[in-house]
């Protein structure tokens, strides 16, 4: 390994995914010299193996499902999806796994890109070992931001390595559609990929250790998604663990805790995420390699005055949009501190504190039906000690839902704090509800009084009229 001279920067960002890019954008806007280190593709997990390719796979699935609900159109879309065309469009959406456009964007904001593996080498120091074996030392005046994200966490199962299981990466970048697919897990990745591959032609079996799908959302969300997957032909087994796996003559065999043998062509494990911090030099600054990085609301790592952690790696909210939100706040806080400016008070709307992480995190699950939620579920609100009331309505009561076609099934819930008369959480399940969630996010983040929501008049006939039905149900 060859070593070169050290180079000084105001800020060094580890990881050039959407989170790292946003940190760099804000620190450059503050006039700080910024280096970004990336060991794979600029654009990160979201652009190439998560958000973008998964939604490219799912969009034709959802569009066909919507069309099949409409008389006059349904007969035109009864055939199978063209799987090869769907995969080809997915490839276009990921720029064929080339990051030239993202690199040009970094160049455009004036950030320096270092390709290679970046590691902390003590306080305010980063070493980068490039593909050519040359090691460069970057010294840092103000901040290092760790934005390395997470990777799939695989269980410790006999035979797993030999099986070569799919994780979310393989599922979103696959070059073929397997005839049979086992999906292990019941969360977002599991339900979205089960939805996609069942529609693309796989026979899907979902194995869930718990009682149902989407356990972190309101129970009815997982129930409605499970019903739709089952009707589409997927098999869902709840309360089922996988004890061992093997590949026999090219066929995957999974053995469950009940002793059942399930055969498949591929097996996808969607069983959680682990932080990518095992080899970034945390031990050189007194921290445990492989650990999550706890932070304060300015995204500064607890106990440090120069180390920041944004996105999945801090374990606050494992969502791209939430990581980008954190990155913008961290970049602005770094810029203010570098200039010796006081941080604005966060109570609760200041620009230097990620307060939404605590009470207004939105999410959309792109299944059919879609499931979207923001804030606390009923159970979470009660566990947090709030006095709350859940208000539920069916979308069948909403005129705009009928325009989506026959057989629209969906439900909405708002969780109302009965003392403060604000919303603690909102959940929508049904076709098209992903586009509703930002209105709920504004209501929850802005702590809009329920009485004031009466004066936010929904347009007729749209599915946003569900807000009126919820308020009417609340009033009784």
Describe this entry's structure for a reader.
The protein is an alpha/beta fold and 476 residues long. It folds into three domains: 177 residues, FAD/NAD(P)-binding domain; 119 residues, 3-Layer(bba) Sandwich (FAD/NAD(P)-binding domain); 107 residues, Enolase-like, domain 1. Helix content is 32%, strand content 25%. Strands 1, 2, 3, 4, 5, 6 and 16 form a seven-stranded mixed sheet that branches. Strands 17-18-21-20-19 form a five-stranded antiparallel sheet, with helices on both faces. A four-stranded parallel sheet has the order 10-9-8-14. α1 runs parallel beside α10 and α3 crosses α8.
* CATH architect. name of the largest domain: 3-Layer(bba) Sandwich
Low-pLDDT runs of 5+ residues are: none
CATH secondary-structure class of the largest domain: Alpha Beta
Ends: how far apart?
73 Å
Q: Please give the share of residues in helix.
A: 25-40%
**What is the CATH topology of the largest domain?**
FAD/NAD(P)-binding domain
The average pLDDT value, as a whole number, equals: 96
Q: Give the overall shape, derived from the CA principal axes.
A: globular
How many distinct folded domains?
Answer: 3
Q: What structural class is derived from the secondary structure elements?
A: alpha/beta
The CATH superfamily of the largest domain appears as: FAD/NAD(P)-binding domain
Q: How many β-strand runs?
A: 21
Counting H and I runs of at least 4 residues, what is the number of helices?
Answer: 16
- How is the main sheet built? 7 strands, mixed
Radius of gyration (Å): 24 Å
In oligomeric terms, what are we looking at?
single chain
Strand content: 25-35%
């Amino acid at each position: 390994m060859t070593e070169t001279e050290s180079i000084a920067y105001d800020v060094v960002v580890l990881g050039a995914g959407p989170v790292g890019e946003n940190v760099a954008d804000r620190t450059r806007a503050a006039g700080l010299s910024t280096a970004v280190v990336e060991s794979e593709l600029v654009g990160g997990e979201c652009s190439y193996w998560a958000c973008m390719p998964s939604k490219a796979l799912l969009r034709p699935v959802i569009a066909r499902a919507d069309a099949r609900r409409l008389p006059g159109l349904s007969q035109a879309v009864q055939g199978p999806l063209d799987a090869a065309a769907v995969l080809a469009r997915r490839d276009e959406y990921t720029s064929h796994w080339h990051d030239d456009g993202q690199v040009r964007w970094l160049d455009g904001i004036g950030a320096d890109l270092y390709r290679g593996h970046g590691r902390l080498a003590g306080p305010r120091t980063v070493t980068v070992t490039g593909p050519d074996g040359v090691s460069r030392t970057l010294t840092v005046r103000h901040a290092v931001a760790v934005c390395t994200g997470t990777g799939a966490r695989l269980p410790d199962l006999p035979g797993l390595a030999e099986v070569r299981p799919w994780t979310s990466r393989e599922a979103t970048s696959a070059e073929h559609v397997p005839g049979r697919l086992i999906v292990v897990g019941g969360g977002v990745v599991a339900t979205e990929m089960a939805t996609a591959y069942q529609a693309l032609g796989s026979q899907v079996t979902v194995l869930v250790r718990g009682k149902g799908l989407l356990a972190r959302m309101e129970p009815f969300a997982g129930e409605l998604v499970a019903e739709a997957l089952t009707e589409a032909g997927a098999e869902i087994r709840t309360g089922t663990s996988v004890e061992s796996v093997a590949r026999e003559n090219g066929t995957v065999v999974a053995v469950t805790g009940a002793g059942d043998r399930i055969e498949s062509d591929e097996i996808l494990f969607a069983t959680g995420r682990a932080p990518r911090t095992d080899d970034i030099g945390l031990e050189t600054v007194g921290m445990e390699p492989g650990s999550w990085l706890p932070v304060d609301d300015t995204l500064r790592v607890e106990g440090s005055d120069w180390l920041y952690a944004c996105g999945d790696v801090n374990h606050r909210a494992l969502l791209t949009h939430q990581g980008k939100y954190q990155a913008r706040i961290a970049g602005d806080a770094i810029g203010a501190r570098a200039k010796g400016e006081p941080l604005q008070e966060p109570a609760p709307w200041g620009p230097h504190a990620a307060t939404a992480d605590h009470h207004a995190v939105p999410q959309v699950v792109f299944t059919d039906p879609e499931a979207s939620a923001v804030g606390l579920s009923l159970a979470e609100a009660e566990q947090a000690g709030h006095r709350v009331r859940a208000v539920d309505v069916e979308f069948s009561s909403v005129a705009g839902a009928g325009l989506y076609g026959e057989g629209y099934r969906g439900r909405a819930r708002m969780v109302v704090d009965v003392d403060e008369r604000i919303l603690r959480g909102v959940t929508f399940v049904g076709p098209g509800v992903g586009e509703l969630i930002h209105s709920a996010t504004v209501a929850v983040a802005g702590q809009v009084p329920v009485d004031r929501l009466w004066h936010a008049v929904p347009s007729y006939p749209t599915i946003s009229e569900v807000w009126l039905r919820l308020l009417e149900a609340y009033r009784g």
